[in-house]
Design a protein that fits this description.
Blueprint lengths: L6 H11 L4 H4 L13 H11 L17 E9 L5 E3 L3 E5 L2 H4 L8 H6 L1 E8 L10 E9 L2 H19 L14 E5 L7 E4 L2 E6 L1 E5 L1 H12 L17 H9 L7 H8 L8 H9 L10 H6 L1 E8 L16 H4 L8 H8 L1 E9 L5 E9 L3 H21 L3 E5 L2 E4 L10 E5 L7 E3 L11 E3 L1 E5 L1 H9 L3
Parallel strand pairs: 1-4, 10-11
Antiparallel strand pairs: 1-2, 3-9, 4-5, 6-9, 7-8, 11-12, 13-14, 15-18, 16-17
Helix pairs in contact: 9-10, 13-14
The structure holds a DNA duplex (12 and 12 nucleotides).
Length: about 450
DNA sequence: GCATGATCATGC
DNA sequence: GCATGATCATGC
């Protein structure tokens, strides 16, 4: 028989879990090998709360209107805490969800109140020894809810446009649509296109969950952006609006305006921070962190050209060869990261002037084709050990995909200097070296330029 | 002016 | 000391 809990009872039980391991909470003797992905949730459902199965679109505790979630966090090498995963919520029913408004949606019905149970993930421990450490009855703060409503609408608009198969987690800020299913072949029908779309679930992004962990577990504070709540509110438009008044001001004028002395290399970055009226980096603010928005400054020279391609974190040769595409760092990075490009344009006086900001994320259609190809080629080269092409005048030429090979993406060095290396899984055939200058994937300047030109 | 390798500068 | 965003240097 189904048990009915009041909110108070739910909370009391959640509190009673703190300090216990999953091994202690589990009635049956599950061997450690049998702890699967969902087993901690299962233990709470079956052994702790014993509420049994319920109808899918209702929250776990229907009468109290509370959904139960168990989720891991981890301690990083530098001592900070992070969420280990996104928080996966209900599967998106493409055929129905679009008929709803936000407040009648399956998402809202099921997830408006979340009883979160946190456990500490420790890589060296058996899973049965993972311990529950914190709990929280979570409701979305009003400021977040405005953004989440907007996120929900972005996902719905893609379904309505017959583009459910093009939905990317990076389309939205806090509420993502992550893939869910046994494999990438888990697909389902969508209402306005014959193309089968990957099965996806609403989820709170890993970065959003990390902020919750840092706020509620580590008790940290973050600088918050001050943005307006217009009726037509969207975060991106609000940011663009407030930056518009600085358009046409030179770097020099902006430096004076914000009292920046000298001309450090990251001057543009500082200016952007000051444009937002914050002390630290824009990307460290509450909003940008939660939404996983990375800022990049772009300079367009007076001949209307973006000189430099765009670099990203270096990859490890030994790790990149061990991943399938969909679990690779490159795929993860571009399928979950949104960018804010701050564009500065050079005029005839050689000075750079603030132009605009452009929000962008990599379309899946390019990520899954072009970037995948470049990534695959790179992996194959590393695996074969066929890395160095020739050494001429002390310059080491390699076989990695070149700028001229692909309109979107290529590979180039990225370290302090060429002696800044990572180990190779296979020694280089030509030279026999067992480590090589750090490399990263770059996005081609012309591709980025097309993106920023297509706006405004 | 472009392609590609190499390196700088800052923050943590 | 290292990771990362950003930019430089050289040869064609």
């Amino acid at each position: 028989m189904k048990k009915i809990y009041s909110e108070k009872e739910i909370r009391e039980i959640a509190r009673s879990l703190i300090g216990k391991t999953f091994g202690e909470l589990n009635d049956f003797e599950i061997s450690d090998d049998d702890y699967g992905k969902g087993s901690f949730g299962y233990i709470l459902e079956e052994d702790v709360y014993q509420y049994g199965a319920n109808s899918k679109s209702e929250p776990d505790f229907e009468e109290a209107g509370i959904e139960l979630k168990v989720t891991p966090y981890k301690r990083n090498n530098n001592g900070t805490l992070s969420a280990k995963e996104r928080l996966v919520l209900n599967i998106i029913n493409y055929m129905n969800e679009y008929k709803n408004t936000f407040y009648t949606s399956d998402f809202w019905n099921k997830n408006k109140r979340l009883q979160i149970v946190w456990y500490l993930y420790e890589p060296d421990k058996l899973r049965s020894n993972f311990k529950v450490t914190h709990e929280l009855l979570f409701e979305f703060p009003e400021k977040d809810l405005r953004i989440i409503k907007n996120d929900w609408q972005i996902i719905i608009d893609k379904i309505k446009a017959g583009k459910a198969h093009e939905i990317s987690e990076a389309d939205t800020m806090y509420l993502g649509a992550c893939t869910k299913g046994a494999s990438s072949k888990s697909v389902r029908k969508q209402p306005f296109s014959d193309i089968m779309a990957k099965q996806r679930a609403f989820s709170l992004k890993t970065t959003y969950m990390t902020q919750l962990v840092r706020k509620y577990i580590a008790n940290e504070d973050f600088e918050e952006l001050d943005y307006s709540f217009d009726t037509e509110f969207s975060f991106e438009n609000d940011i663009k609006q407030r930056l518009r008044k600085y358009k046409g001001l030179s770097v020099n004028e902006l430096s004076k305006l914000f009292g920046i002395v000298n001309e450090p290399k990251h001057l543009l970055d500082i200016i952007i921070s000051r444009l937002f009226g914050i002390k630290g980096k824009v990307s460290n603010t509450n909003e940008f962190s939660k939404a996983n928005i990375i800022t990049k400054t772009i300079r367009i020279n007076k001949n209307n050209r973006m000189i430099e391609s765009m670099s990203f974190p270096a990859f490890k040769f030994t790790e990149i060869v061990n991943h399938e595409w969909e679990e690779s760092d490159l795929y993860t990075y571009f399928s979950t990261t949104k960018f804010m490009f701050a564009v500065f344009k050079q005029k005839d006086d050689d000075e750079y002037y603030f132009e605009k900001v452009v929000f962008w994320n990599m379309p899946l259609s390019i990520l899954d084709t072009e970037l995948r190809g470049v990534w695959k080629k790179t992996v194959d080269i590393i695996k074969s050990g066929n890395i160095v092409k020739e050494i001429k005048n002390g310059i080491v030429y390699n076989n990695f995909p070149k700028l001229s090979d692909n309109h979107y993406c290529h590979v180039r060095p990225h370290g302090r200097n060429k002696d800044d290396v990572y180990p190779l899984p296979v020694p280089d055939k030509l030279t026999g070296v067992v480590e090589f200058t750090k490399q990263c994937f770059w996005l081609k300047n012309k591709y980025i330029q097309d993106i920023i030109n297509s706006e405004d």
